[in-house]
Amino acid sequence: MFDFLEYTFNQRALLAISVIGFSNGALGTLVVLRKHALVISALAHTLLPGIALAILIFGGLNPLVGFVGALVGALVVGLSTVLVARVGLLDDQTALTVLYTTSFAGGILMLDRIQTYVSLDSWLFGNILSLRDSDLWISCAVGFLVLVVLARFRRSWILFLFEPSIAASMGVPVSKMRYLLTGLMVLGLVTSLQAVGAVLSAALFIIPTATMLQWVRSPRALLWGSGALGAGAGMMSVALSNWLDLRTGATLILLLGTGFLFSILLRMGRG
Amino acid sequence: MSEFDFSLLGPAHAPHPDHELVVEGLSVNYGSICALQEVSFRIGCGHAMGLLGQNGAGKSTLLKAIAGLNTPLSGKVEWSGRPVTDMRQEIAYLPQLSELDPRFPLTVQGVVELGRYPHLGDTHPWSPSDSEIVEKALTMLQLNDLRGRRLFQLSGGQLQRTQIARALSQGAHVLLLDEPFSGLDEPSQHLLRDLFQELVNRGRLLLVCHHDLKTVPVLFDTVLLLNREMVGVGPTSEVFTEDHLLQTYPTGPSAEKSDV
């Protein structure tokens, strides 16, 4: 039954997806409580052109190039959204959607031109099995960093998310936390990209917390619960996709979605 | 008589000479728009001060400036002789209820525990004395039975009491409240009025944005009238006059004024 674990790429996939599932699931609690579900969706799509452009400029992909590219892509689209919305008298969502879809399309065309070991398909839908050792280390480092930042500012996060003006009145550096959260989201997304691809990566942040919200009543339980759920579902998806010959990324999100549906149904049952 | 037991806050005390809020030459701009111009006043502890004015007159802006939430163009705000931004423990800001998200995953007790943040920061471990302070705050505001409730399960009055309990667990001397009576039913309003009285008797200073002119004389011993700049400040009996109100509400609610 666990024969698939004899292969190194499966072991690597299992480890990577647990780390990514946990750290991004936990980070998702901040994203959801900040009501940024749609923002992270859009952000996920802005990473692609950034990374493609970085490969074009630096002539190859390594994790640092990938991250810098993703960050620049996200920042450029984020800042232009504010500008375009103001100049064009558009609401933020309209401006953001115009910009992220356009840059995503540009990213697709750029990637078609670039010879990398990763296919466009992997960028869009993820390919956890194509992971190299260096990718695994990056994922572990990012996961560790995310959890350290979450834990280090645990009380500040709760206040910041609950009501920023109360937080600021108590001395929480609210605007710094806003930037910090954006940075963490980009970092987390870069790792999610490999696991589930650009199209589905927001789900890894949003669904675990949306599910846990049906069960827990404190931010701390929510955070760790969402992390555990993300990691658990990640490991199950590697096993399931091996047994049934399915794509791992899509299997993972479908598992999470099913768990969410059950939680909602049980909640309705409880009244 | 109040049904709340505030003896836990310590004995009623005469105004302490050091406990003084000093606002001097305070001006706040939003972009190029002047929201508040040259506001100056001082007030000691043991008072309830109503901030009155039309919408856009700068009431909330003044409250936020005192809470250290916006950067003033000029002027200073001090409590006990030190800038308010150095005195986070002493000053509690209570936003309008409509600004709180009742779905946020916190219980009543969880919210009251947030008040310990200025004392603990992120790294100090939670101690038994913190629990004790939270217990006291819950008891004082009769929230013991509601401590496990989520915020969406509370009435407006209960939510407002939760906010005040949070301020007390913070140990705040100055409470800044933005329209605390709006959205409360009649009994809750009476309860909150009694609470205010108790807090003032125990040496707290309350600064309250308020729009219902009819209730001003019963709620506040001091008023500050605002119309971007200060129209008047002082004891309600002297400052809350027809003349001043005409300057404060040039297009204002004449019906409400006739009730004064």
Can you characterise this structure?
- The complex is a heterodimer of chains A (271) and B (260).
- Chain A is an all-alpha fold and 271 residues long.
- Chain A has one domain: ABC transporter involved in vitamin B12 uptake, BtuC, CATH 1.10.3470.
- Chain A is 83% helix and 0% strand.
- Chain A is globular and about 55 Å long.
- The termini of chain A are far apart.
- Chain B has helices at residues 59-66, 108-114, 117-120, 128-140, 156-169, 186-201, 216-219, 236-239, 242-248, 254-258, and strands at 20-30, 33-44, 47-52, 74-79, 82-83, 91-94, 174-178, 205-209, 222-227, 229-235.
- In chain B, α4 runs antiparallel to α5.
- The two termini of chain B are 25 Å apart.
- Chain B is globular, with a radius of gyration of 18 Å.
- Chain B is α/β, with parallel strands linked by helices and 260 residues long.
- In chain B, a hairpin with a 2-residue loop joins β1 (20-30) and β2.
- A 6-stranded mixed β-sheet of chain B has the order 6-7-8-3-9-10, with helices on both faces. A 4-stranded antiparallel β-sheet of chain B has the order 2-1-4-5, with helices on one face.
- Chain B has a domain at 17-90 and 215-260: Rossmann fold (3-Layer(aba) Sandwich), CATH 3.40.50.
- At the A-B interface, α7 and α8 of A face β6, α2 and α3 of B.
H/E element string of chain B? EEEHEEEHHHHEHEHEEHHH
Low-confidence stretches of chain B: 254-260
The end-to-end distance of chain A, rounded to whole angstroms, is: 40 Å
CATH class of the domain at 17-90 and 215-260 in chain B: Alpha Beta
Instruction: Tell me the CATH architecture of chain A.
Output: Orthogonal Bundle
CATH superfamily of chain A: ABC transporter involved in vitamin B12 uptake, BtuC
Q: How many helical elements of chain B? A: 10
Query: What order do the strands of the largest sheet of chain B run in, or round the barrel if closed?
Result: 6-7-8-3-9-10
Q: The biggest beta sheet of chain A, please?
A: none
Class from helix and strand fractions of chain A: mainly alpha
Class from secondary-structure proportions of chain B: alpha/beta
Work out the oligomeric state of the chains in this entry: heterodimer
- Taken in chain order, the helices and strands of chain A follow as HHHHHHHHHHH
